[in-house]
Automatic annotation (TrEMBL), chain A:
Pfam family, one: MadL
GO cellular component assignments: membrane
Name of this chain's protein: Malonate transporter subunit MadL
Transmembrane segments: 30-50, 62-80, 86-109
Superkingdom: Bacteria
NCBIfam families: malonate_madL (TIGR00807)
UniProt keyword terms in alphabetical order: Membrane, Transmembrane, Transmembrane helix
Native source organism of the sequence: Larsenimonas rhizosphaerae
UniProt key word Cell division: no
Keyword GTP-binding: no
TrEMBL record, chain B:
Any Pfam family hit: MadM
NCBIfam families assigned to the protein according to its UniProt record, in alphabetical order: malonate_madM
Top-level taxon of origin: Bacteria
Stored InterPro entries: Mal/Na_symporter_MadM, Mal/Na_symporter_MadM_N
Transmembrane regions: 12-31, 43-60, 72-96, 108-132, 138-158, 165-186, 198-218, 230-252
The name this protein goes by in its record: Malonate transporter subunit MadM
Protein keywords: Membrane, Transmembrane, Transmembrane helix
Domain Malonate/sodium symporter MadM subunit N-terminal: 5-252
Gene name in the database record: madM
GO molecular function per UniProt: sodium:malonate symporter activity
Amino acid sequence: MVIYGVGLLAGCMLVGLVTGDVLGTLLGIDANLGGVGIAMLLLILVTGILKQRGHLPESTEQGITFWNAMYIPIVVAMAASQNVAAAFSGGLVALLAGALAMALGLLLVPVLTGHRREPLPSGDASTTSPAPGRTH
Amino acid sequence: MNDSIMTVFDKYHLIAAFAVIGLTMFLAHWVSKRFTRGRLHGSAIAILVGLALAWVGGVMTGGKHGLADVTLFSGLGLMGGGMLRDLAIIATAYGVRFQEIKQAGVRGVIALFAGVLISFVAGAVVAVSFGYTSAVDITTIAAGAVTYIVGPVTGATLGASSEVIALSIAAGLVKSILTMIFTPLTAKWIGLDNPRSAMIFGGLIGTTSGVAAGLAATDARLVPYGAMTATFYTGLGILLAPTVLFLAVRALV
């Protein structure tokens, strides 16, 4: 059932957030330390085990993949409900931070690649593009 | 009739938000295909439209929640709020397989960590040079330079202001859009013509929409290799930015 997937997702989220909260309290910081990240790891782990044992039918999967696909639309809604008008005056920070991050990333590509080269397989790769819900 | 529209939109605000965002997504993808031939990813255009709408809403109402302050669109605050956003972000981890990262090899993993780290440091340096002094603000803007998801998630967990969170989204968006534009232009120069460098590129830049669109404009066959490592980037950023990196920033300022 679809709700099993949604329930599993919700369960992972709650466990992750509680763990993050406890971590924050332990370290004396008034914030949730990595709760979302912990929940992501938990979801990968739990669904991996369930799938291996054949306990993850397609209908259950749909409960998770629906929210996966809703991710960019939700991000758009989030962007639309931020205090952009106030941020506008400081927009140069965003421009420079984003540009510098991109430039440094591109510059490091040849450094990390080294000299070894692998040939590129022929054929069209458009069929193996990432799922639309995973664009971030 | 106007009254009826107002009443329904106000009463069913979340449903209205779904409709508004659905329309925005449709228009953004249409513009992407029609005017940029897919070079600028539809989702990046949609987020840009979202930020523009938030600006309009803010100027119209003088409020702090962008378009969500306009009664007609109050559902946007719920749809884009922390609860549903975190649920959807966690859902994106579904289907990630750690075996994939093994294929990328040690250099792929190094690229991932280096990519998150240099983007974060770049963002932090810019934030500090613009006079931001609180660890929460610096971390949030720096996390935005990682991706436009890591920024708001980090900002929300650390309790940053909406203004700083908006900046962090904008920083990530600038990075994503510039990646789409500059990847094909610099591809030859940085040796972006084989699977190995594509995987390293994906790990270093990480913003999936930017990586996918940039590689597609360079050579479509490179897309899956770049996407393979980029998939892990946001997850790694969400794990590191509000924790280790925030603690590091807090220790430094």
